[in-house]
Amino acid sequence: MDQPLTLDHREGPYGEVTLRQRGDDFEIIANGCFLMDTSDGRSERLLIRAALAELDGRPGPAVLIGGLGVGFSLAEAAAEPRWGRIAVVERERAVIDWHVGGPLARISGQAQADPRTEIVEADLVAYVREAGVSYDALCLDIDNGPDWTVTDGNASLYSPAGLAACRSRLTPGGVLAVWSAQPSPAFEEALRTADFTDVRTEEIPVRRGVPDVVHLARRPLP
């Protein structure tokens, strides 16, 4: 296996974040925890596709992507003409820089140039509670899952208050999609308790271990 080459390493308000290259692929490490790499991307793309499928042909839906990551989710959204407004919330300035004129632009460059796209530098947990704008879909991928957060503060996103904030940010009938490195029955139950409906989980097989999943839930219609 190729030894990784560190391309950038920064200390920020949320700890350390590192971009490494391993062969032809890039990987992001946060506080020593592997987050994602460019070797596959199927589950990140499914996050976007599954949310759109749940919207039942709603014209020009707006999507909020939580976490820029390596750019697969943004690239998937921008490649789909049915999406209207596409907003990406990313709290790490370094990650944004790696995309805007950096090595990850090879994945997201075309999507960044799309007039529907906006990249917002903000903490997602605060953004969903404070922003006044609504979305038809929230596609969240800021952790390794609800049970495995990158920083302790992210845990509040999956709390009753955090899920209530997500629900209020959605239009009626809108969809919440949450990526996870493993299934979480407890999170499914938390979604139901938070008054989401149509709660279900889609699995994505991986080369080794348990499958990645996308948790899906809907804000009820009035």
Describe this structure in words.
The chain is of the alpha/beta class and 222 residues long. Helix content is 27%, strand content 33%. The chain has 7 helices and 11 strands. The chain has helices at 42-54, 72-78, 93-99, 105-112, 124-130, 160-169, 185-193, and strands spanning 5-12, 15-22, 25-30, 33-37, 63-66, 86-90, 117-121, 135-140, 170-180, 197-204, 212-218. The strands form 2 sheets. The protein has a 7-stranded mixed β-sheet, with helices on both faces. Strands 1-2-3-4 form a 4-stranded antiparallel β-sheet, with helices on one face. Helix 6 (160-169) links the parallel strand 8 and strand 9 (170-180). Helix 1 (42-54) crosses helix 2 (72-78) and helix 2 (72-78) packs parallel to helix 4 (105-112). It is globular, with a radius of gyration of 16 Å. 43% of the residues are buried. The mean pLDDT is 94.
Provide keyphrases for this structure:
single chain, 222 residues, alpha/beta, seven-stranded mixed beta sheet, four-stranded antiparallel beta sheet, globular
